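User: I've been trying to design a sequence by hand for this structure and keep getting stuck. Would you show me what you'd pick, starting by listing the structure so we're on the same page?

Assistant: Good idea, let's start from the same input. This is the structure you sent:
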């Protein structure tokens, strides 16, 4: 089926955009996996569901984009109205999902500190009795080289000794490791909130930036697809 010169340009532009969509799908997938891997050890430290669902949504969207790009490429090359419309609908759904993740990323990054502090204040009291809480705090204090919520004093405030994980290394005295104390070598003097908040803020802004940035690119693809589909349908009706 022949289409006008202008729409022919749109056809090949749409084909090129689909190659770009495949690349954006790969970017989305990589970012989703990276965020999921890096936030996983600390994801239970906040009650914000965004940090659990956001990366998963991007991973799913990244996979779907490859399928959608296939419909777009085939539809553009074959000038198939049905495939072009299918492509536009899928792309619009993806656009909405990415837009939602992007907006949530920028909104949630302002609320993360209160969420983390609230959760840590609740769970620190369970440190001696809850193995899961103990493991979470130990991993947090070891990986981020921090101690307590705002500082080492949080342990004394909750009638607990400073955990060994607040020290990077301890002296061996009489065959046993010395207790972790503020004057111990490698003592972590900073509170974990100071380390955690920037980490989660970076994750939120990354998800927001990727979601909004790629969504805008894909919106252009929706417009091209709709123009091409309308042209193909018009040409078909005039035959």
């Amino acid at each position: 089926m022949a289409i006008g010169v202008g729409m022919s340009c749109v056809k090949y532009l749409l084909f090129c955009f689909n190659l770009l969509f495949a690349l954006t799908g790969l970017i989305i997938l990589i970012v989703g996996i990276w965020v999921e891997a890096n936030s996983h050890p600390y994801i239970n430290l906040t009650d914000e569901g965004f940090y659990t669902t956001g990366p998963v949504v991007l991973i799913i969207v990244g996979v779907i984009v490859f399928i959608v790009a296939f419909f777009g490429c085939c539809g553009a090359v074959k000038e198939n109205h049905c495939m072009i419309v299918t492509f536009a609908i899928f792309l619009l759904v993806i656009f909405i999902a990415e837009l939602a993740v992007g907006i949530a990323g920028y909104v949630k990054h302002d609320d993360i500190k209160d969420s983390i502090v609230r959760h840590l204040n609740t769970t620190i009291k369970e440190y001696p009795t809850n193995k899961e809480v103990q493991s979470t705090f130990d991993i947090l204090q070891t990986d981020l080289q921090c101690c307590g919520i705002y500082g080492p004093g949080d342990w004394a405030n909750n009638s607990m000794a400073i955990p060994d994980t607040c020290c990077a290394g301890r002296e061996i005295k009489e065959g046993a490791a010395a207790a972790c104390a503020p004057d111990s070598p490698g003592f972590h003097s900073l509170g974990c909130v100071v380390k955690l908040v920037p980490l989660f803020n970076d994750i939120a802004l990354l998800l927001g930036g990727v979601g909004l940035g790629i969504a805008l690119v894909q919106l252009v693809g929706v417009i091209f697809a709709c123009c091409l589909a309308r042209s193909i349908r018009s040409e078909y009706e005039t035959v």
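That's my pick for every position. To get oriented when you compare it with your attempt: Residues 71 and 87 are 6 Å apart (CA to CA). The two ends are 9 Å apart (CA to CA).
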